[in-house]
Amino acid sequence: MVLAGLRWMFLILGTMIGAGYASGRELWQFFGQDSSLAILLFTILFIFSTYWIMRISYERKTVHYLPVLSAVLGERLAAVYDFLLFSSLFTTTAVMLSGGGATLEILHVPYWYGVAFIGVLLIVVFIRGVKSMVTINMFIVPVLILVLLLILLLSSHGMKYSWVLPWDGPANWPRALMFTALNVISLVAVVGAIGHEILSKGEIWLASVGSGLILGGISFFYNQSLVQVTKDLLIYEIPLYALIKSFPYFFNIIVSAVLWFAIFTTASTGLLGLVTRVGKYIKKPAWVLTLIFLVLMFPLTLVGFSTLIQVLYPLYALCNLYFLAALLIYPINERGRK
Q1: How many CA atoms lie within 13 A of 314 on its CB side?
Q2: Which CATH class is domain 2-337?
Q3: Centroid of chain to Cα 334
Q4: How does residue 168 score in pLDDT terms, banded at 50, 70 and 90?
């Protein structure tokens, strides 16, 4: 049970800690100054939401995300959100491919070579099916988290930050709802794909609570670090680079590696949701479906990374607020039916 719970926990964290999150852009977009209470609220909402998404997937033995949408929203609205989620996964994954190419440019790798490289790796991962993607995530995500925490700790120590916990000040708590809504819908796509493999409620508790506490802790630490360099964030498109501005050049390579692996996990989990969704209708191996999606995404790789974060993310979050509200009252409705 513990090992399985950890597998799902790292899969969830891999879905959450994508390029937007790891770069700091996503956190700064939604939180920033006076957001301690908002991050605490996000942590609670995230644990609750993840638990019920996993429980619905477990009880219905899902192989893709549509049954979860139907359970929470009903059949009619589920069709609308099916299109919304599918388009979200498609566009986000496409821009992650673009980000994969752009990130390798720091090593003087041509942009299109970088895009092709991450594309080939994604196909290789899915050659052995969905299970191999989950297994690889279990190794990549812990390393990604540790390196990110190390960078945050070194920047905090090196710059002698003064930590301020504004619990009593103005709180951006409504942003916690937006941030949760944005990310919960992505979890539906990923968890819905592995619902049939969850064997006990103990796995659900470990994965939901563990991922929520880890994500909440990192988010608070990361956001407080960015608050200390607020002025520098006007200069750097990727906030994480502002934290290491006085570090040796070698750290730029480390940060680029962190961002690349975060991009890879985002792209792989996005493809997991897409492949399992269309797999119901197109009976082809997972790697073939992955190849088809990558070819279709090629035109969208010209879209900029920051454009996605600043425009699409808030838009998706606004649309997904209704889903979050429905999910929050789902246990009450379910109890009423019984």
Answers
A1: 12
A2: mainly alpha
A3: 28
A4: very low
Q: How far apart are CA 179 and CA 321, in angstroms?
A: 9
Phi-psi domain of 247 (left: phi exceeds 0; alpha: psi -120 through 50; beta: other): beta
Tokens of 24: 């700091």
Task: Report the candidate in 217, 171, 227, 164 with the shortest Cα–Cα distance to residue 38.
Answer: 171
CA distance 190 to 274: 9
Categorise residue 227: left if φ over 0, alpha if ψ from -120 to 50, beta otherwise: alpha
pTM: 0.87
Measured between alpha carbons, how far is 200 from 333 in angstroms, rounded to an integer? 23
The model's pLDDT over 110-123, given as tens digits with 9 standing for 90+, comes to: 888 888 899 999 99
Give me 260's structure tokens. 């690349």
| Helical H segments across the chain, by residue range | 2-16, 19-23, 25-30, 36-60, 66-73, 75-103, 111-127, 130-159, 173-194, 201-227, 239-243, 250-278, 286-297, 305-307, 313-337
Q: Dihedral, CA atoms, 317, 101, 117, 299, nearest 10 degrees? A: 70
Map out the domains of the chain as residue ranges: 2-337
From the list 178, 177, 211, the residue with the least C-alpha distance to 53 is 211
CA distance 89 to 82: 11
